[in-house]
């Protein structure tokens, strides 16, 4: 299916709503039936009818069909957060006594689920370095039910060979789940590479304007129908119609935004790589990246998230640099219009800062939609501040 068709036409039946170009927000909790027999049919198969908006809703439906097509999957569900998509995907595929193999630094709330919630139900997890396929083979046990992936991983951007992991898991009847938030389905399609369930935080690039929290889970009709009839409706974490409408709006400009961000990110990387206070830039599609070859094989792009390591002995210098930025905001999340930064040292008490560890001297930068020079000159003046003080 062509990208332009998916984003501009797919699932939009304008005859249903006065030929309006922008689809309506069907802000209703429930739907009325004309006959008892119609109602009975809906009770028999809620996934085929409009019954109640905790399940299906026409505005959400437009979004669902577009997002499933973008993932090249059979079907998808849209949640009111990426965390909810992770929770439903994992919960739907484990039972008491099962085991999960996960990449070692999955998204915070995936890790919290693995460490704090699932052990209460006798589900254990083994964390591995996912850059080597042999580590998956070693970690798999007879009761392994799920392999949990995140490629690239969101700080150092470690990749997993998605095709190789999918093949290994299929041979052992293990369900694979991949967090694809970094790339979006425009730049990576895990489902096409054999991954069973692909998910992303739509809060990031799909929304694109830092104003919606949402998540997408895509897979086969069989998996998605089963999750709809169980976890999705039971947890009640489906997206609301207004937020679905905002995501449809975000999708219209997704390719244009990613193209712009990709270009600006190249310029920012070139600036950082040649700056004397920058030790290293970490970005999957930079030729210095350790898994550059694999990145080229499974990713079509890498958008605007990068990490750089400052050459400094002190936590104060890093703090000074961040506090001196005039335009780049200090905030979590990414994927919106605005450039953002987080220093790793914000996640630890100052006395635990160890300049011997590159990780502690690292900063994660998200490159937004501003003019390239606007971003670069802000970085440059803040680097000057710490150069003069050190
Ligand atoms: C933000 C994020 C999530 C969680 O998504 P929310 O929409 O914030 O719940 C999951 N995975 C990754 C990699 C993320 O960056």
Automatic annotation (TrEMBL):
SUPFAM superfamilies listed in its UniProt record: PLP-dependent transferases
Coiled coil regions, renumbered to chain: none
Residues the record lists as N6-(pyridoxal phosphate)lysine modifications: 204
Keyword annotations of the record: Lyase, Pyridoxal phosphate
Biological process (GO), any one: transsulfuration
GO terms of molecular function: carbon-sulfur lyase activity; pyridoxal phosphate binding
Names of the cofactor(s): pyridoxal 5'-phosphate
Keyword Lyase included in the entry's annotation: yes
GO cellular component, one term: cytoplasm
InterPro entries attached to this UniProt entry: Cys/Met-Metab_PyrdxlP-dep_enz (IPR000277), Cys_met_metab_PP (IPR054542), PyrdxlP-dep_Trfase (IPR015424), PyrdxlP-dep_Trfase_major (IPR015421), PyrdxlP-dep_Trfase_small (IPR015422)
UniProt record similarity statement: Belongs to the trans-sulfuration enzymes family.
Family annotation (CDD domains): CGS_like
PROSITE patterns registered for this protein in UniProt: CYS_MET_METAB_PP
Position of the signal peptide: none
Protein name: Cystathionine beta-lyase/cystathionine gamma-synthase
């Amino acid at each position: 299916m062509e990208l332009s068709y998916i984003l501009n036409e797919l699932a939009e039946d304008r005859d249903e709503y006065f030929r309006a170009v922008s689809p309506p927000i069907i802000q209703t909790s429930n739907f009325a039936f004309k006959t008892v027999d119609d109602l009975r049919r809906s009770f028999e198969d809620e996934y085929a009818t409009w019954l109640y908006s905790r399940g299906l809703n026409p505005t959400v439906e437009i979004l669902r069909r577009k997002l499933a097509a973008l993932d090249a999957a059979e079907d998808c569900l849209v949640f009111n957060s990426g965390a909810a998509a992770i929770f439903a995907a994992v919960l739907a595929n484990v039972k008491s006594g099962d085991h999960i193999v996960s990449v070692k630094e999955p998204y915070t709330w995936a890790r919290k689920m693995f460490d704090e919630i699932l052990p209460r139900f006798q589900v254990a997890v083994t964390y591995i370095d996912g850059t080597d396929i042999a580590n998956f083979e070693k970690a798999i046990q007879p009761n392994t039910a799920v392999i949990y992936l995140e490629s690239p991983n969101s700080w150092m951007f470690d990749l997993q060979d998605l095709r190789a992991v999918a093949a290994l898991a299929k041979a052992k009847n293990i369900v694979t789940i991949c967090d694809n938030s970094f790339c979006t389905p425009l730049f990576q399609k895990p489902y096409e590479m054999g991954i069973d369930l692909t998910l992303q935080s739509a809060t990031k690039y799909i929304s694109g304007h830092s104003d919606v929290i949402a998540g997408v889970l895509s897979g086969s009709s069989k998996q998605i129908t089963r999750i709809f009839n169980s976890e999705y409706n039971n947890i009640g974490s489906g997206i609301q119609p207004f937020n679905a409408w905002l995501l449809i709006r975000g999708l219209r400009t997704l390719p244009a935004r990613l193209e712009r961000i990709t270009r600006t990110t190249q310029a920012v990387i070139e600036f950082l790589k040649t700056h004397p206070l920058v030790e290293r830039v970490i970005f999957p599609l930079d030729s210095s990246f350790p898994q550059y070859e694999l990145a080229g094989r499974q990713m079509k792009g890498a958008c605007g998230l990068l990490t750089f390591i400052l050459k400094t002995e002190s936590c104060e210098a890093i703090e000074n640099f961040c506090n001196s930025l005039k335009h780049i905001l200090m905030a979590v999340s990414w994927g919106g219009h605005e450039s953002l930064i987080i220093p790793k040292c914000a996640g630890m008490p100052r006395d635990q800062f160890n300049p011997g560890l590159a990780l502690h001297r690292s900063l994660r930068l998200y490159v937004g939609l501003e003019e390239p020079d606007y971003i670069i000159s802000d970085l440059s003046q803040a680097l000057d501040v710490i150069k003069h003080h050190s």
